[in-house]
C-alpha cells in the first residue's frame, strides 16, 4: 500500500511541476492571478452600460452583415466580441469551483443572448428583404470541425487573457474571428424573425442551426478556459482569500450569496463542487453536442463526395460526347454541347443534356452514348437515363461557331454571365425534366404545375390536380418530399391545389329550359377553371327515362353549352351530355356538372 501511495504522490508532483513550469513561462505571478480573477469578475456585472451597448451594436452589425451577405461587416461584429469575457468567467468558475461567479456568469450570459437575439429579431422584422444569404446558411449547419476550432480558440483566448498584454495580445482579434460568438446568435434572431413573418418551419430550422453553433462555441470555450485556468493554478489559497473578500464587498456578489443562502439546497451544491464532478458537468454537454455535430459532418462529407462524383460524371460525359458524337465521320462539326446536368433519382443516374445540332441523333446513337458512359463509370446501362434536348440549327457552320465561342468563353476570364433568358430556359428545362412522369396517389389526377420564384420564396411549385377528395396528409408529405428530391432544392415550397370533380347541380323549373339566374355564378366558376386548365372537359349528367322522356333535356343542355361557349369561349366539343336513370319518382329537373380529363379536341 505504501508503494501505491508513493507512486500516486510522485505522479501528482510531476503534474504540479508541469503546472509550475507553464505558469512560470507565461509569466503569471500571484498578483497577476488576482488581477485575472478580478477582471473576469468585473466582466459579468450587469451594471456596465458600455457592455450592453457593445452587445446591442455588435448584434446590429452582425445581423446587417448576415442579411447583406458581407463577410467584412460580419468580421467587424466578431472583433467587438463582448461575450468572450463572460464565457471565460464561466470557465473560471468551473475551474475554481466558485458558485457565486458561476451564477453571475450564467445570468449575464443568458441576458446577453436574450438581448442579442431580440435585437436581431426586431431588426429582421424592420428590413424589407429577408433572403437567406450564403453567410446565414453557412452558420446553420455546424459540425465537429466547428467544435475543434472552438476548442483551440478557447484555449488561446484563455492563454491570451492570462498572460501580460505584450506580444500575445495580437492573437486576440484572431481568436474573436475564429470563435465568432455574435453571428450565430444573430442567426437565431433571424430564424425567429423568419418563423414569425414568413415560414414557421424554415425559420425554426435556421434558428436551430445558429443555436447549435453558438452552444458548440460556448461549451468548447468554457471547457478549454477551465483547463487553462486549472493548469496555471489560478485558485491558490491567497487568490481564494482575496476573491472571498472581494465577493463580500461587491454588491452584486453579496446579493447572489444572500439569495443562495435562503435555499437549503444551495449547501448541497458544495458537495458536487469537486474537480471531477465539475469536469463531468462540462463534458456532458460536449458529448451531447457530438451527436448532431457528427451527423452534420457526415452529411457534409456525403455532399462533397456527391459533388466529386458529379464532376467526374460531367467530365466523362463531356469527353465522350466531344470525341464520339460532336462531329460527323468526316470531321465536320455536327453538334455543340450547351448544357449538361446530372441528378440521382431513385437510384438511377439522370443525365440531362442540351445540344445544338445540325442533325438529330437516332435512338441507336443515344443508346451508344449511354453504353460508353456506363462502361466508363462502371455502371449498368439500365441505371443511366439520358434526357437529350436537341435544338436544331441550319448547318454545321453554326455549330463550328458555337463550339469556338464556347471554347473561347471557357478560356476567357472572367466568364460572361448568362443572360436572364438563358437562365430562364435552363431553369424551366431542368424543372420540366425533374417533374417528368410525376404521379399522384389515386384517385387524384395531375392537371399541371406552376413554377414561381421571388426574393421571399426562391422556388415555389404549385401543383394542380383533379380529385373528388383531397390528398391525405401522409401522402401529401411523401409527394412533397419526392418533388423536392427531384428538384434537388431542399427549400422549395410545394403547394397542392385541388379542383373538385363535382362542381355542383343546376336545378331548372318544371317544364322549363330557362337558365336559372342563381346558376350563372356556378357556370362562371366552371368556365374560368376550364380556361385555366385546357385538358378539362365538362360532363353534364341529366336524368331521363324511356317510359317518360323529358323534352326539355336537350334544350337545357343547349342552354348551358351556349352560355359557356359565348361567355368563356369554351369549345363545344369539351361539353359532353350524359343521361342516366332518375333516382326519384319526380320529373327530372336537375343537371349535374362534373369535370374530367380528356383530349383538348374530340
Automatic annotation (TrEMBL):
* UniProt-listed Gene3D superfamilies: OmpA-like domain
Q: Which InterPro entries match?
A: DUF389 (IPR005240), OmpA-like_sf (IPR036737)
| Pfam families (alphabetical) | DUF389
Question: Which UniProt key words apply to this protein?
Answer: Membrane, Transmembrane, Transmembrane helix
NCBIfam families named among the record's database cross-references: uncharacterized hydrophobic domain (TIGR00271)
Q: Which residues cross the membrane?
A: 49-68, 74-94, 106-129, 144-162, 174-200, 212-232, 279-298
- Keyword Cytoplasm part of the UniProt annotation: no
Query: By what name is this protein known?
Result: DUF389 domain-containing protein
